[in-house]
Amino acid sequence: MTGKRIVLFSLLFALAAFAGAAPFGARALAQDCVLDKCLGQKSAPRVDNRARSTVAPGDFDYYILALSWSPGFCALARGSRDRDQCEPGARLGFVVHGLWPQRDGELIADCQAGLRPPSRLDMAAARDLFPSESLARYEWRKHGGCTGLAPSAYFAEVQRARASVTVPASLTEAREAARYAPEDILRAFREANPRLRPGMAAVSCPKGVLQEVRICLSKDLREFTPCPEVVTRSCRARQIEAPPPL
Q1: How many CB atoms neighbour CB 148 within 10 A?
Q2: Which residue blocks in the chain are alpha helix, DSSP H?
């Protein structure tokens, strides 16, 4: 084999190896996604309908009720799309981010059924649940379609889930910025909800700011439920900032 042929063969082999490695890179990027957000992602990606989840709607184990601390969310996500939630004077505390079905320790999202847009009548069931109608529509499209429910029934489940959780007054009545240990926040929720035990909730704190409390509920929404996969992703900071409502 001549020298030129050896170089050409080596080059082709290297290109083939590189092409074969691409899927592994894609999987590594996917692993950076934690629940409803991805690290380094500035906005929600467009979903290729051909790549939507193949999980059968309704095939899940339990729910995560995500309660967003609105001042923390607004401090981290500045933009016109957040105007309804982050407008000065709104004075929003904990608001519903979403109700997410979880299966085999993984969040289920982007099911084909979510492509059915909710009607205006369906959206009436979401009124006063989410800080904005656009978020309600997004949550149906992203997660609601995976529940096996119609849009109005999904929003009714969101309402049931929210009504089942008591938010601690000690957090909602704050009038100035405070700092908490994440465990203090979870303890406050457990004290306000006696059936909520350790291992059933988690705190999200990107950049050291309280953004969300995620509470795990049984599929029928009658009980809080253990969720080790969610708890292992809980905030590990010693203390985090909780900005006051605007």
Answers
A1: 16
A2: 3-31, 70-76, 83-86, 120-124, 133-142, 151-163, 169-172, 182-192, 228-231
Residue in the block written with tokens 């050409």: 8
* Residue 215 bridge partners (DSSP): 65, 201
CATH 3.90.730.10 given to domain 58-242: yes
Q: How far is CA 229 from CA 81, 199, 200, 223, in A?
A: 31, 10, 10, 18
Residue 32's pLDDT is 29
pLDDT digits (tens, 9 = 90+) for 48-95: 444 466 778 888 999 999 999 999 998 887 655 567 788 877 788 999
pTM of the entire predicted model: 0.78
Amino acid at site 199: G
Q: Six-digit token pair at 34?
A: 């934690």
Helix axes 151-163, 133-142, angle to 10 degrees: 110
Contact partners, residue 245, CB within 8 Å, separation at least 6: 70, 71, 90, 91, 92, 93, 174
24 phi and psi angles, rounded to 5 deg: -65, -40
- Domain locations in the chain as residue ranges: 3-32, 58-242
